Amino acid sequence: MGFGDLDFLCERAPVPLCSLVGPYTVSEESGIVANGVAASCYARSIDVANTVIFQTGTAFINIAALGMTAMMGFNIRSKYTAVGRKELLSFFYLYAILTVISLCVDCGVVPPASRPYPYFVSVQNGLTSATCWCLMVNGFVGFQLYEDGTRLSLWILRLISAGAFVLSFVVSILTFQSWGGQSPKDTMALFVVLYIVNAVVLIIYVVSQILLVVGTLEDLWSLGDIALGVFFFVVGQILLYVFSNRVCEGVKHYLDGLFFATLCNLFGVMMIYKYWDSITREDLEFSVGAKPVAPMSNPWDVKEYYDDDRRPYGHDGSEYTGSFYALNRNSSMYHI
Question: 11: closest CA among 175, 242, 262?
């Protein structure tokens, strides 16, 4: 087993790309390439109305993930003035599209032996890379290197995500179809792009958020959200690539590591939302569904103080002149 050889992983994890890599043979009659490395144990399929459905448990998790994504997206949209709102929505849009494609690929909507299957798996790989890179760019929004929500910010996010998608898609399809000097037996480029690069990108995001919380924010409880997100993601990958066969055999082929990896990924995404929600605040005057309040010069951090024996009325009977506001003009919508 050399560096970048996916056979070692595919023998332990029932991931879609494994049916497209490894040793292969070419049929002279049909010209169809039959290849792949199968895991020793995988979840059983079910037959519904003469239709075979693979990974039934994983399908339910993907459907639940779409519902949770819709709920989190609605809550993000309702925080109308929060920092990084549009950028984080882009991440959730990509995650939702990735979930739909994974639902089609994992459950056999696109059969593994069909001609479109390599293209769908390549799209899945491309969306995986695009989602990871989009998350990393979201991590830099909190440092306010440029104004969030502007065309500049959104186009930087879109171009980087699109570039990651194209790179991963092209490397995947070249490998699966034996084009451009690539081969299903030579998966080093695919391994580097899909596993090594994406892992580095996710590490950069985590480190950047730790630096943001420790160096800028006062609420260190947000580190707990980051830690839980990392925990769920790492546990999911371990259950998929290390213990999938044992899990599958232990539950009599009803589930495998892909089910738990998909579930843990969902929990990790939920922690990303929870973390963002915990470090952002919004202007209640302009938030969706909030009651209008009196306009103020700085709405981010407003505190009203009264002396113990002072009524909130001035000498002229005004309701407001007897009080004063302490405004932190240097604060942003993050807790600084």
Answer: 242
Per-residue pLDDT reduced to its tens digit, 277-286: 988 875 444 4
Nearest to 107 by CA among 52, 37, 40: 52
Count CB-CB contacts under 10 A for residue 322.
Answer: 16
**Residue whose structure tokens are 């570039």:** 163
| pLDDT digit string, tens, across residues 255-294 | 899 999 999 999 999 999 999 998 887 544 444 444 444 4
Tokens of 148: 């969030």
**DSSP state, residue 72:** H
Q: Write the single-letter amino acid at 123.
A: V
Rounded to an integer, what distance in angstroms lies between the CA atom of residue 115 and that of residue 120?
10
At 273, list the tokens: 């939302």
158 with 138: CB under 8 angstroms? no
- With residues binned 3-state (H G I as helix, E B as strand, rest as coil), the percentages for the chain, rounded to 5, are 55, 5, 40
Identify which of 91, 101, 93, 90 has the alpha carbon closest to the alpha carbon of residue 123. 101
Number of H helices, E strands in the chain: 10, 6
Rounded Cα–Cα distance for residues 240 and 328 (Å):
49
For the question of whether the overall pTM of this predicted structure is more than 0.70, the answer is yes
142-170 b/e with 16+ CB inside 10 Å = b?
beeeeebeeeebeebbeeebeebbebbbb
> Tokens at residue 223, please?
């580190």
**104's tokens:** 């089609």
**Beta-carbon count within 10 A of 318 CB:** 11
